[in-house]
Write a structure and sequence with these properties.
The protein is globular. 32% of the residues lie in helices and 18% in strands. The protein has helices spanning 3-18, 113-125, 135-143, 145-158, 166-169, and strands at 25-32, 38-50, 61-67, 78-80. The protein has a single domain (3-169), classed as Ubiquitin Conjugating Enzyme (Roll), CATH 3.10.110.10. It is α+β, with helices and mostly antiparallel strands. A hairpin with a 5-residue loop joins strand 1 and strand 2 (38-50). The active site is at residue 97. Residues 4-161 form the UBC core domain. It comes from Ostreococcus tauri (Marine green alga). It is found in: Nucleus.
Length: 173
């Protein structure tokens, strides 16, 4: 990993610790080095996004992974929910389809982790129907909003505070 990537992610971590939105989690993962010691891995972050209050997404904390390549911040990180996450702008693999994460549309090297997470939270309740990534969720929302909302509420229960959802999937450091 280059010094530029390391320095930027270390600064992001420092900034996050000083100021982050209530209910959000963003922490670098840990890994074992060649000596078997546990070290911080700044290139992979485990995150959680709370559903906005008064929306069908409320009451849950959704796990999200950010993976930063050697070309970060020139190129955006890979941002993903768990595979199978139900949303029109989330691919079946879990990868999030959002303009600020697309280097050809809205990515700028100045976009922060905080801005990414807030953008993803906003996307949950306001999907971009002109740029679908998942046919099933897109079709459900287009054809039957009630059916779509029912599936989202089921997913919210899965990741709810006391369901063992997000807490079991996020490594807290």
């Amino acid at each position: 990993m280059s010094n530029l990537v390391t320095n930027r992610l270390a600064q992001e971590r420092k900034d996050w610790r000083k100021d982050h939105p209530h209910g959000f989690i963003a922490k670098p993962s840990t890994k074992r080095d060649k000596n078997g010691d546990t070290v911080t891995d700044l290139t992979k972050w485990q995150c959680a996004i709370p559903g906005k209050p008064d929306t069908i997404w409320a009451g849950a904390s959704y796990p999200l992974t950010l993976e930063f390549g050697n070309d970060y911040p020139a190129k955006p990180p890979r941002v993903a929910f768990p595979a199978g996450f139900f949303h029109p702008n989330v691919y079946p693999t879990g990868k999030v389809c959002l303009s600020i994460l697309n280097e050809d549309k809205g990515w700028k090297p100045s976009v922060s982790i905080k801005q990414i997470l807030i953008g993803v939270q906003e996307l949950l309740d306001t999907p971009n129907m002109s740029d679908p990534a998942q046919q099933d969720a897109y079709d459900q929302l287009r054809k039957s909003k009630a059916t779509y909302e029912k599936k989202v509420r089921e997913q919210a229960r899965k990741y709810g505070a006391n369901s063992g959802g997000a807490g079991d999937e996020i490594i807290l450091l």
